Amino acid sequence: MTDSVQILELNAFRSASPPTEPGSHLGRRLRNFGAASVLFYREPIEMVSASGPWIIAADGRRYLDFYNNVPSVGHCHPRVVAAVASQMAKININTRYLCPIVDDYLDKLKDTLPSALSNVIMTCSGSEANDLALRIAAEASGGTGFVVTENAYHGNTRYVTEISPAAQKVAVRPNYVATIPAPSESGSVGEEFAKNLRTAICALESRQQKFAGFICDSIFSSDGIFSDPAGFLKLAVTETRKAGGVFIADEVQPGFARSGETFWGFARHGITPDIVTMGKPMGNGFPMAAMATRPDLLVRFCKDVGYFNTFGGNPVAAAAGLAVLDVIRDEGLQENALQIGQYLKGRLSDIARSRRRIGAIRGAGLFLGVDICRDGRPDAAATSNVINRLKEHGVLVGAAGRTASTLKLRPPLCLTTTEADIFADALEKALSKVD
Ligand code: PMP
């Protein structure tokens, strides 16, 4: 077993005995999904519709969505819905045919990326993008060994599950994977992180695993959200390259303007990765993801196998992606993430002054982590209570971190101060019952 909380166990529904009465939706779900069923909350919620940051449940209750970073420009954004419907009605086909909208999208996407990363492969999920990134890194470096953070999550294929400690209920930890602690919260953050990386690279080499690369989520979401000081990742990237490895920035969580200061999480650190992977908010709910890299890395990989993905890069995905980029620009969502994020952090700091349960508050833009503590130490049980009480107050949040004692806040980027206040007021009420 691992000594940390597995990612699917976070805020999970546990059924002692599935309901058997006819017509119970929960019963049907448990019978259909079987052992693979994963539902949130002590009492799961049935959802019916959504708009902006709000979701309507089957019982008519309205929930403020502080959890889902997929519908990042707002649930069911009319421009994304219209773009998808219109392209679906025109043509949807694979990338073995030319279709201008796909290249229109990629040109626009590349405007947001470092110019060196001029080749983009589109996939359907972040897992597929990371799987491909690992294969390219291994090919380019001639190595096998990867370094990841202790509670990293990078997806669900066999390869990415093996390099994702947070995905494992029983630790797999193959020989070719070495882990390092999440960045520290103070002191020489960058130096310490790079030193740990160096040690991990040596550990791989002592196991006869030539170093292939270092992959990290640039806001360390499953590790508990570590964003500061901006720039601390620089030394780790230098260290990676010095050891002949490839640096992969997994932007599935922080990408697409969420961190406010920059469009990509890695850009806050002033670095240019060798490979960038992205997904979740890319299509605002339309399943799409991608991997961007330098041509020299891709050429080497394609000599051996090459890559094709039946649904990846289809014109409907391109339409969704284009609409998302346009909405982020036209509605000023990056600036909004920055401003409302700062406002929210301010409200959280005010609450922390009177509520001893709040420990550290971390994060950038509208991606914040709040430690819930008892006697100054992280407290998973209290965090779970707060999450379930917030639900009673009509707010949805998740947990993060090795011990699941960090509240993970990722509301849509269109959040207003009024909605930030609704959240903060609900948190105060939830905390008052946990004290
Ligand atoms: N990387 C990170 C950092 C993620 O959080 C996730 C999904 N939670 C993935 C990759 C995998 O993405 P997907 O579920 O789309 O395969």
Summary tags:
binds 4'-deoxy-4'-aminopyridoxal-5'-phosphate, 435 residues, Aspartate Aminotransferase, domain 2, single chain, Aspartate Aminotransferase, domain 1, seven-stranded mixed sheet, 2 domains, five-stranded antiparallel sheet, 16 strands, alpha/beta
Describe this structure as you would to a colleague.
The chain is of the alpha/beta class and 435 residues long. The protein contains 13 helices and 16 strands. The strands form three sheets. A seven-stranded mixed beta sheet has the order 4-10-9-8-7-5-6, with helices on both faces. Strands 11, 12, 13, 15 and 16 form a five-stranded antiparallel beta sheet that branches. Bound molecules: 4'-deoxy-4'-aminopyridoxal-5'-phosphate. 4'-deoxy-4'-aminopyridoxal-5'-phosphate binds next to helix 4.
